[in-house]
Amino acid sequence: MDQDFQRPFEGKTLWFLAILLSMANFVAVLDMTITNVSVTSIAGGLGTSTNQGTWVITSYAVAEAITVPLTGWLAARFGAVRMFVCAMSLFGAFSFLCGFADSLGLLIAGRVLQGLAGGPMMPLTQTLLLRIFPREKVMTATTLWAMTTVVAPVAGPVLGGWLCDNYSWPWIFYINVPLAICCSYLVWRMLRRLPQTLDKARIDVVGLILLIVWVGALQLMLDEGKDLDWFSSRYIVALAIIAAIGFFAFLIWELTEEHPIVNLRVFRHRGYTACVITIAVAFGCYFAANVLIPLWLQSYMGYTPTWSGKTTAWSGVASFMVAPLVTRMVRRVDPRKLVMGGVMWLGIISIARSFFTTDISYGWIILPTFLIGLGMPPFFIPLTGLALASVEEKETASAAGLMSFLRTLSGAFATSIVTTAWEDKINYMHAELSALIDASGEHLRQVANSGMPPEMARALIDRLVTTQSVMLATNELMLMIGVLLILASFVVFVVPAPKRKGSGAG
Prior knowledge:
Blueprint: H1 11-33, H2 39-46, H3 50-53, H4 55-67, H5 71-78, H6 80-100, H7 104-118, H8 121-132, H9 138-166, H10 171-174, H11 176-191, H12 205-224, H13 234-256, H14 270-300, H15 305-329, H16 335-353, H17 362-374, H18 376-389, H19 396-436, H20 442-449, H21 454-489
């Protein structure tokens, strides 16, 4: 092997590689949130409903979640560098396919493929950073990587809104293409001869198929159930049966397989199970709220995608500010208290959001959005450490992969559930208000007598009823999310007390 590549990277070359890998991680995380404020633009451009437009979010999240547990096997089988370059190149190609799509079906197919390619990118970027950096600089490299993970969700809504307003929605995908080409080419040129040991371990094919079947069937059921009147449709019933049978078959197989694709045995640790439940519920609620608020702002409050993105980005700004402080606190304070405080704070602010009105100002919208971001680092940072500290050292990689899988999956499921519940609540509230408002027709007559045509008068009153129905439905869901978060905050105390302060900081 060339001796030049046995020496560690140094100086500008080392930091250039760090920026390249961090940028790849940035792009993968960015695409999880860039579509949150673009749903209405995509739905309008493709002639579909807003509810169907949210499939663009959930399809990517589900596909990404499925490939995360495969990352370790793929890196060992084909090499981390080769696998990263392949994933990055495919991510760019599938991003172009998404932008080129002229129908919702083609766009969802592109998003699924994009998610399958994007799933391994995040863990592989971190793996490669740890390999090329000397031990004394690992913490600096990890901090750089972590900052891109924090900044990307902030930049996603802002960038997505700006592109939709000033250009068109396909550009939220086209911008990935040049970045993917540059990163994959340069990383391959610089790291292709990096020493690596390949392991031709077999993959749990049956477990992978069962995982795809039950997750895919369940997500399809959640996405299409409302449009097909749920279990009155044979298609939805069939999906429910497939999901249930596939899930239990997956459990049985993974618990008896010698080399499972997902190591479910880690759930025997009480602390890990409690942490995973907390992170799945809390992240699902947080992600669902971040999808719901832009839909409400753009569909019924007259916000443009750009302003909607700027509004939701405030939570990321707050998280960015608080994260360094939490990192120091976790070494001195019982991490369970930090987690409980963070999740409970998210719940309290979500309940405060349930008192919004249709004439609310921009300042009062961004205030709780900013405040809710303050609760994310105290919840997320110590909880991740607590979870991994609850399992045996040899199980850490499996536990981390499973936790990432369930966290991402919870966001997809929560998005489908909350958007479906939102539309159902709007219809219910509209029916209730229609029966209460102007039952005698007096207001309609007054408006008509003012010179407005009867059809326009009816449309005006219906618009007012619809706007209030949406506000009531949004507030009720925010209240439910808040209560669920407060209940989830107590689950973390099932985790055994750390043996020493800061044991969850790792």
